[in-house]
Specification:
Belongs to the CAF1 family. Its EC number is 3.1.13.4. By secondary structure, the protein is an alpha+beta fold. Among the domains are: 219 residues, Ribonuclease H-like superfamily/Ribonuclease H (Nucleotidyltransferase, domain 5, 2-Layer Sandwich); 73 residues, Alpha-Beta Plaits. Strands 1, 2, 3, 4 and 5 form a five-stranded mixed beta sheet that branches.
Length: 468
Amino acid sequence: MYQSVSCVDFKEVLPEVCNAVQEADFISIDGEFTGISDGPSVSALTNGLDTPEERYTKLRKHSMNFLLFQFGLCTFRYEPNQSSYVTKAFNFYIFPKPFSRTSPDIKFICQSSSIDFLASQGFDFNKVFRSGIPYLTQEEESQLREQYEERRSQINGAGTVLYTPTAGMGFCNVPEDQRDFIRMVELLDTKLMASTQPYKEIISNTSLAELHKQLREKPFRSPTTECPEGLQSYDTSTEQLHEAGYDAFITGLCFISMANYLGSFLTPPKSHISARSKLLEPFYNKLFLMRVIDIPYLNMSGPDLQPKRDHVLYVTFPKEWKTSDLYQLFSAFGNIQVSWIDDTSAFVCLSQTEQVQIAMNTSRYAESYCIQTYAEYMQSRQKSTHTSRRWTDDGWADTSYSAAAMTTCRRRRSLGSPQPIRVKVKGAADTRRGRRRRRRRRREQQREQVCRNAHTCHVTRSLHKLMS
């Protein structure tokens, strides 16, 4: 079944929602928002070498002023006798309109592209604004209760009750009686599952609509679903995409198909895999991280992955530089990958860790750019954390990216496009002592050349074992 819920029937439907959740083997959720980022686009805001903490902080900072105005919840209960799932889907319209003169009058923002997209999908904005379910945060509820108690005390002649306003849009304190329940909840991200073995070699597109289509074909099987008699069910042939209740329903179907696929690897094979199966434990409480090169997920119940980034360089350069300039600078090192941080800095991933020291040596003579290893960059950034934060109207602003660069790198004057790092490959017949002697001689000549011409720096290094 599915049911649209507004302020008109919320109280009536709420007991049914609670019962469905209590009976469910698992639930799936989805949401529709008024926007995604109030600053740069998500692709410009993030880079491929963010840590999970950095990614979360960036996205949270630029999303807190948007509204969730449709919330979808779908419950799934497995019936072993029929080998099918009983589903109950609810589509909540939500809007924090003030319900009294003293209740909060919430300010929020919209992103035009998000609103335009939802309008193209037939989203009912009138229902949100006219009949959306009003709500309060815990902090707002506490404020209203204290204000009520203060007025009542004044009427009864008891004097003024001391009142301290709360912080507003901060982290919520979880009530003590709910903490044990939250610890029992296991979260599964279908996008992460689809992007991980053993699925990623079979599934080519992890967007919800395409994922659902692929999971209806072999080697997967679509689950059988039913709803209580007299109640309406979502029809997947109509594809009511971007209605939160429908998307929650489809998300649950995708999870069932992927979970049951794991049963085919057992001996003997099993056609049904429970959401509590140990086969699914590797996916518990991990959220997919999009466009991060070497960290696939954010771990909500343990330490995050810390991959080695010994092949990564942190490069600062003039604002005029483009990606092509970085490719030109590192052209001698073969394939590289560039992840921009801001207009004057980027991460550069080399194909071989052994090439890092060569690049570092060449940067000592550079006039227009500066290079640090990833380890040096992280160390300097941690040292500058306390001194690089400044208070703004929006709270503490972290400028540690630029501070980290300035702690060990002095910004040099701009010299236009960079000269590529030149590397000469020596023959296999060279002796070790001869190579050392020639390297010392070349370094002396290079120092003299830098003094004569500050605009160029051509450094020649031996790569007998590295580049041959």
